[in-house]
Design goal:
The chain is α/β, with parallel strands linked by helices. The protein has a domain of 76 residues. It has six helices and 45 strands. The protein has a 23-stranded mixed beta sheet, with no helix packed on it. It is globular, with a radius of gyration of 45 Å. The termini are far apart. 37% of the residues are buried.
């Protein structure tokens, strides 16, 4: 065989190399052109994409957001948070056969996800999350991405159903479709995703039941179906998910009993089934694995907790059974839980005391406890001072129970919210609260506290926003220092025995002077911060997350003297209640400054004078009560006041008139009318007198000539005397009405007849 010359071999190698390089260069050119053309279709993009240019195509792998494989092809396109504003319509997906990762998250993309995305057959990671203006449905071509391991389409504006083709993604390990507003049911093909370890379909509009096929995903660690419209019972196949750590099903319409094998996973960390319709006993197996830290079962219909359910669950940190039908003794539910941080059993019908069998307060060793909510139960007994020593406690609500005795504890700087309302506590204002420097809410209402309100409250509790001391036995004057709170937004001192005047200095009361926004508590996800107030003449429990509440209630006391004018400077007020006191004087003339005021009650006092005209400026008022006072005058009118049609809000004010009461009689107009009528009557009589005198004079005059000269002389003298008087009267009147002339003529005719009779007798 003839050997090839070495030079020929070199030339042959170069030819083969050129043949291989030319197609690669052409493919790279196509990738560059696809990106540049798509960039040109965008309305805007981050400045970093300035490197995308065909003139710079030889440095494609150095373009912003791009990573290449060993052959120089684009393998990763990451434009997360790149200020993209435009659509995906002009992007040629077929130009990227080697692309393994595509990330377009947190941008301003709009339009739809093109079906051509299925051409990215090498794709392993696809993230188009947080583009809320992307509409349409998830394209069925998504099922062509057989190598996909991560699919993240969360927080898009998509609609439609989850396509069955999702079951073709058998390599998928993570599926995030939360907050996409998907409709329809969960496809049964989802059970084909046997490698999936993370599944999030929360925050959609999914309906139907959770499919039994969910039990095929035996590698699943995290499953979140919360905040949908799923119904039916929990599928028993979940017991096969032995690797499961997080099970979140809250905010659905699931119901029935939860099967006992729910705790088959020894790794189970979190169970959240809140806000569903579950009933029966809460499963006792949830702590078998010993890893459980969080249980949220609030707002269901559970009727009981097995005595041993949480006794040995030493890892437990958060437990919330608010608003169920559980009847149990509190201390039977718990044992040693040194890591417990959240304990909430509001409305669960718990009974007993906070003491264990040894007479010790079982809460006192919970050094990590940050939230304690045992409100609305039937717990009794006293409180131990050790509760105030819990160093991590942020929120404590023991209201609406039967606790009694004095409040013996103080608190750490960590405590923000303290609710002890509607119990049987007694004694003076708790001195230990003087150390609660960080308190935002203090609710002691509905107890038997007595004595005076201390003057130190505003100095010792500088961050306080809500102070509720209603329905106690506090007496004495309201200390003027109480209006030195700079952040206070709600003050309720109603239903006590307070006396004296209302202090008039509100200069530092900035929490009520300024308009306030919606309150957000510092306790994150727990929207449980509630206070009980009389709002719009109705007692109600008000959730501070629902909107701003700025108000003052001093009703049902023995307060006297005048309403201070300084109140009209509290421009942020939304309700003001001063009813059922002994207040005197008039309503402040600048009351109309309170333009945000929705509810005003000044009833059952001794107020007098008129309702100020500025009342018409109360454009937000919907509830009003001024009854049982001594008010008088016309009720001001405005478009908003006219919506209050109930006359009872003004009754028992004998001098008030105008809508919705009887119309007022205008005194000035009435006086003018009376004077005019009197003047007209006087004019009528004068003209009648003149006419009658003329006729009488006519007949007397001719009679004198006919009978005697002496009579004629006497008559002339009489006429001379009357002439001056009549002339003066004539100057004050100009005319006589026709109707009045008729009366005069009728009178003259009578006089004429009388004269004829006199003449005949003569």
């Amino acid at each position: 065989m003839k050997l090839i010359h070495p030079i020929g071999l070199l030339l042959l190698s170069c030819i083969f190399l050129l043949c291989a390089v030319v197609p690669v260069r052409a493919d790279l050119r196509r990738e560059a052109e696809a990106l540049v053309n798509w960039k040109a279709s965008l309305a805007s993009a981050d400045e970093s994409l300035g490197s995308w240019s065909l003139a710079n195509s030889t440095n494609l792998c150095r373009w912003s957001g791009i990573r290449c494989d060993s052959a120089g092809h684009i393998a990763k396109l990451n434009l997360w948070n790149a200020s993209l504003n435009g659509t995906l319509d002009q992007l040629d997906f077929s130009a990227f056969p080697h692309l393994k990762e595509l990330s377009f998250g947190h941008n301003g993309l709009h339009g739809t996800i093109p079906a051509r995305i299925g051409n990215l057959t090498s794709l392993v990671v696809l993230q188009i999350a947080d583009n809320p203006y992307l509409r349409g449905a998830i394209p069925r071509s998504i099922g062509q991405l057989k190598h996909l391991a991560l699919l993240n389409l969360a927080f898009l504006g998509l609609d439609g159903t989850l396509p069955e083709e999702v079951g073709n993604l058998t390599s998928l390990e993570e599926l995030s479709l939360n907050s996409v507003t998907l409709t329809g049911s969960i496809p049964l093909t989802i059970g084909m995703l046997v490698k999936l370890d993370f599944l999030d379909l929360s925050g959609n509009n999914l309906t139907g039941t959770i499919p039994l096929e969910i039990g095929n995903m035996t590698e699943l660690l995290h499953m979140d179906f919360s905040w949908n419209y799923l119904e039916g019972q929990l599928p028993t196949t979940i017991k096969y998910l032995t690797e499961l750590q997080f099970l979140v099903l809250s905010g659905n319409q699931l119901g029935g009993h939860i099967f006992a094998e729910l705790g088959n996973s020894s790794l189970l960390d979190t169970i959240n089934v809140a806000k569903n319709n579950f009933s029966g006993l809460f499963p006792s197996s949830v702590c078998v694995g010993g890893a459980l830290r969080t249980v949220s079962a609030r707002y269901n219909g559970f009727t009981g907790i097995h005595q041993q359910t949480f006794q040995n669950c030493t890892t437990l940190q958060d437990v919330d059974f608010t608003a169920n039908n559980i009847v149990a003794e509190l201390r039977d539910c718990f044992g040693e839980h040194p890591e417990l941080a959240i304990m909430a059993f509001r409305q669960n019908q718990l009974y007993g005391s906070l003491l264990n069998d040894q007479g010790e307060v079982f809460l006192c060793n919970l050094t990590y406890l940050s939230l304690l909510d045992l409100s609305n139960n039937d717990l009794n007994g006293g409180l131990h001072e050790c509760i105030g020593d819990l160093p991590s406690l942020i929120f404590m609500d023991l209201s609406r129970n039967s606790f009694s005795g004095v409040v013996p504890f103080s608190c750490h700087d960590s405590l923000y919210y303290l609710h002890l309302a509607n119990n049987h506590f007694r004694g003076t204002f708790p001195l230990g609260l003087k150390k609660c420097k960080s308190l935002i809410t203090l609710d002691l209402g509905g107890n038997h506290f007595s004595g005076t309100i201390p003057s130190w409250v505003s100095m010792s509790l500088p961050t306080l926003k809500f102070l509720l001391l209603s329905s106690n036995i506090f007496d004495g004057n309201i200390p003027y220092q109480i209006f030195q709170f700079r952040q206070l937004q709600l003050l309720d001192l109603s239903k006590n025995r307070l006396t004296g005047p209302i202090p008039d200095n509100f200069t530092n009361f900035t929490g009520m002077i300024q308009e306030q926004e919606t309150i957000h508590t510092r306790f994150g996800e727990f929207d449980r911060e509630e206070i009980e107030i009389v709002w719009k003449n109705a007692g109600r429990v008000y959730n501070l997350w629902k909107g701003p509440v700025v108000g003052m209630d001093l009703s049902d006391n023995y307060l006297s003297q005048e309403i201070p004018n300084g109140l009209t400077a509290l421009l942020g007020l939304r309700y003001l209640n001063l009813s059922r006191n002994q207040l005197l004087g008039s309503i402040p003339k600048d009351i109309g400054n309170l333009v945000l005021l929705e509810s005003l009650d000044l009833s059952q006092n001794q107020l007098s004078g008129g309702i100020p005209p500025s009342f018409a400026a109360l454009k937000s008022i919907t509830v009003l009560n001024l009854s049982y006072n001594g008010l008088s005058g016309r009720i001001p009118t405005s478009s908003q006041l006219q919506t209050i049609e109930d006359p009872s809000v003004y009754t028992h004010n004998s001098g008030l008139c105008g809508s919705p009461l009887e119309d007022c009689v205008d005194s000035s107009t009435s006086t003018q009318n009376d004077a005019s009528q009197a003047e007209d009557r006087e004019a009528l009589w004068v003209y009648c007198f003149v006419a009658a005198g003329f006729i009488l004079g006519f007949w007397l005059y001719w009679g004198m000539f006919m009978f005697s000269g002496t009579w004629r002389c006497a008559f002339h003298q009489y006429v001379d005397n009357m002439q001056g008087k009549v002339t003066k009267k004539m100057h004050s009147f100009k005319s006589c009405l026709r109707g009045r002339l008729s009366a005069c003529l009728f009178g003259l005719q009578l006089n004429e007849k009388q004269l004829e009779l006199v003449g005949s007798e003569k």
